[in-house]
Amino acid sequence: MIKEVKHCSAESAGPLPVPMRRGRGLWTRAAGLLSILTVAGGWTISAQSCCQDRACEQMRFLYGQIAAGYEKCCTSPADKQEACFTDLFKKIDETQSLVLIAKIACDNNEDALVRDTIKEIRDKWLPKIIKPISGIVQNEMIALGRNDYLTIDVSMTRGPNCKPVTVSIVDGTAVNPEAAGGASEGGRSAVPGAAGAGSFAVLPANATQSFTSCNYTVPPGSTLNLRFGKPYNGLAFSGSLSIAKLSEFPRMGSADVGLPTAVSLKASALGHKLALDLDKTSPYNTLRLDSTGKGTLGVALTLSSDSSALIGLVQVGSTIYFQLPVEVSADWTTLRLRVDSTTPGDAITPTVAVVLAGSDNQTLPPALTNDRGCTDSNENRIKDGAERFIYAIRSQLGCGSTSNH
What we know:
By secondary structure, this protein is an alpha+beta fold. Helix content is 30%, strand content 28%. The chain has helices at residues 26-39, 50-74, 78-107, 111-125, 180-187, 345-348, 353-360, 384-397, 400-403; strands spanning 129-130, 138-139, 149-158, 163-165, 167-170, 173-175, 200-203, 211-217, 223-228, 230-245, 254-269, 272-278, 286-290, 294-304, 319-328, 334-339. It starts with 25 loop residues before the first helix and ends with a helix.
């Protein structure tokens, strides 16, 4: 049986520079990590397949993890740096091997193997949604980069059937019951004037005074545009979300006034579908508005798809935090999601700064000033060693033109 190999463009990857070597130090190791791919012939084919595009997206994910890994190792105590770098290089080596396996499986239409391999890549790094001391919720993996975008403008009408829901209150903050454990462990900071640290309560749906959740549905015929490396325009958009109203709009400033209790959204085109469903275990789901009803819908969404064109992405199967601009009418009967293409992608999916910098970086790396490369000569948030490592991998694999971020 002849298996189809899909091709997306006929763009040549061009000549490949040889990665630098620095004696027995960092770049000898870098060359070793690249060998498994170069021995296999690399990906420098004249017609770049869709599978190569997906593989380059995995490398983009890896670049962010390399940058974050270097940051961690370089700031570790001196006596722990060697072990940290050894572990980092091992994970990079293993990940590159897995990306090659996934690409070959994709070329041969072995979707189950692709899915299992991508899961193994994700599990190796275990990227999470975090809330550091800054208080800004962030993704530890790249989702939408600075040059990506999501364009959407839909007004969703509240349905007639609202129902009471059970809500947990942790340190004065309302969360879904499934998130109570994570929130009580410090996942969310207490709001001003809230109960003391460690306070916990459950308000059941059948309580005399309970919170009511209402459903808002995406109108038929809605579409969205997306740039994820490449533009995808006119995607059909459907689904619904449910919000429990916690309080009225604040008189001044912004406040958490609603709790997302369910989200089920779908984007589709040419038979390919991507589902986004609320992760109720996340303590970061909230609707935050100002006195005019404008603000953000912060939701942790798990991405899923059975489409062969999408399962080869590490983002599919992952949970990603989205921060979507919203407008809610004064009577709460309509909720409008509105994002335009001028909004950078990382504003929609906030990402740890060093991960974002590593994933989006396209600049020529600086010269190393020490063997580890723990300086940041061009002050772009990426350690010099990580930057040269990323550049060597990207150049060797010809991914610059395909990821194009």
